[in-house]
């Protein structure tokens, strides 16, 4: 300390050097670390890195060969808000993986091998704003209630996956959603998908690369833009009847016809009983007279 009470320049340099040294000591091998950030991009990592500083806010694991995210190790990073895991080998079951990182705002899982998203995959990410799960060709299912707890979700990208169907309520009930990527998927444009297409045309959400949001099946609608097939699906689904519809109508008609016959028979039977009862009553009165 100088007589004025201010720290000498040498003291400042010493403290700064100690801080930098401590930062390097806590930095995982093959990664670079800055203040609250750990960057392990393109280091050919096979596993989740060890010795990540517990105060890390931003973790970048892009372009590696990581196939598993350990829930326990992630839970130690309670202050993590940004996690980039794109271009890895993540797949199979990610349920409850993110149970300990409730502050996470940004999550990128694109270019991986995800197969499904269940109601337990992201249910603990209550602060999530951006979720990228595009370019997962093995992703074939997103459960109806998969994003129920992600009410702050604003940016969702599911482009270039194996999805053929997405329930309307899965995204319709997200109050803050403004961006939804849907392009280059294998959308099956049947009557079950009509509600989703109608919602797309009526919502105020931005659909980037909208020209590539097209039907893949059936063959008659292939390559047609999804919003453009709404009118045709309305005609096919709401005016035309299929074989099962004719069978149902026939069965309903037969039941109504049979019920009518039974009702008429019962009415006639009751009328006869009443007539007989009245006739007997009149005969009894005559005998009494």
For the biggest β-sheet, the strand order reads: 1-2-3-4-6-9-11-12
Number of DSSP strands?
14
CA radius of gyration: 34 Å
CATH architecture of the domain at 32-186: Alpha-Beta Horseshoe
The assigned structural class equals alpha/beta
Largest sheet at a glance? 8 strands, mixed
Distance between the termini: 138 Å
CATH secondary-structure class of the domain at 32-186: Alpha Beta
Mean pLDDT: 86
Summed up, what is this model?
This protein is of the alpha/beta class and 289 residues long.
Describe this structure in words.
It is a single chain. With 289 residues, the chain is α/β, with parallel strands linked by helices. Among the domains are: 32-186, Leucine-rich repeat, LRR (right-handed beta-alpha superhelix) (Alpha-Beta Horseshoe), CATH 3.80.10; 241-278. It is 32% helix and 13% strand. It is built from six helices and 14 strands. It has helices at residues 9-26, 71-75, 168-172, 194-202, 230-238, 243-288; strands at residues 32-34, 37-39, 58-60, 82-84, 91-92, 106-108, 113-114, 116-117, 130-132, 141-142, 155-157, 179-181, 187-188, 215-217. The strands form four sheets. An eight-stranded mixed β-sheet has the order 1-2-3-4-6-9-11-12, with no helix packed on it. Helix 2 links the parallel strand 3 (58-60) and strand 4. The chain is elongated. The N and C termini lie far apart (138 Å). Mean pLDDT is 86; it is low at 9-24. It is a single-pass membrane protein. Residues 1-21 form the signal peptide. It is found in: Cell membrane. GO terms for molecular function: potassium channel activator activity; transmembrane transporter binding; voltage-gated potassium channel activity. The chain crosses the membrane at residues 246-274.
